[in-house]
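Hi V.,

You were right to ask for the full record rather than a summary. Here it is.
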Amino acid sequence: MTADQASHVVVAIDGPAAAGKSTVARGLAEKLGFVHLNSGALYRGVTLLALRTGVRLDDESRLEVLARDAEMGFTLDGRFLLNGVDESAAIRTPEVDTAVSRVSIWRRVRAEVTRHQRRIASLADVVIEGRDTTTVVFPNAQVKFFLSASVEERARRRYAELVAKGESASLDEIAAEIRERDQRDETRHESPLRVADDAVVVDSTSLPADEIVSQMARTVAERITSK
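Predicted structure:
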C-alpha cells in the first residue's frame, strides 16, 4: 500500500521553482498540525551528495545508488537530515540550485526519491511540496494545489533570499536561470511539470504568504469534510 492509499491525509502542493511552495507548505502544515515534507530537499540532498563525491550529473546509475543508499528525513521543526547530519543550509547553495534540475530529470533517481517520499508520508498526515507531487508521487492525494507566480516575482524572491544570506546575486541572471529551469522542468521526458486535472491553481504573485495559507487551509477543511 502506498502512502496516498493509506488512512493518513496527504495535501500536495506542486508548481514551478521559487513560486513559494516551501514557505506556504510550512505555514499550512503548521496551521493544520501536519508534518511538512519538502520533496525538493530530497532531490537537493542527492545533488549535494553528487557534488561532494564527484559523481557526474549525467551518470544515472551512480546517481540512483546515491539516492537509494542515502538516509534522508526531516526533524519535527523542519530541518533536513542527510545521513544523520543537518544539511538544511548546504542544500540551498547556488551550486545546488544550478545542478538539482539536472539530477531530478533521471527516471531511476525520481523512483528512489518517490520511495523516500511515500515512506515518510506513510507515518503521518503531511503537507508535501514539490514538482510532480500531485501527478506522480501522490496522484490520489486528498487535496492538491498548483502554486504559480510570475518569473519576475520568483526572481525577486530568490534574489532577496540570497542577499539576506550575504551572498552576491544578479536579478537578471536569477530570472534567466528560472526561465531555463522552467523550460527543463516542463519539457523533460520523465514526469514533466504540469497542472493536475483536480488541482486548485493559486497565483501567488501578488498575494502574501499568510493569505495563501489561510485560503488553502479553508480548501483543505472543505475537501476533507466532504470526503
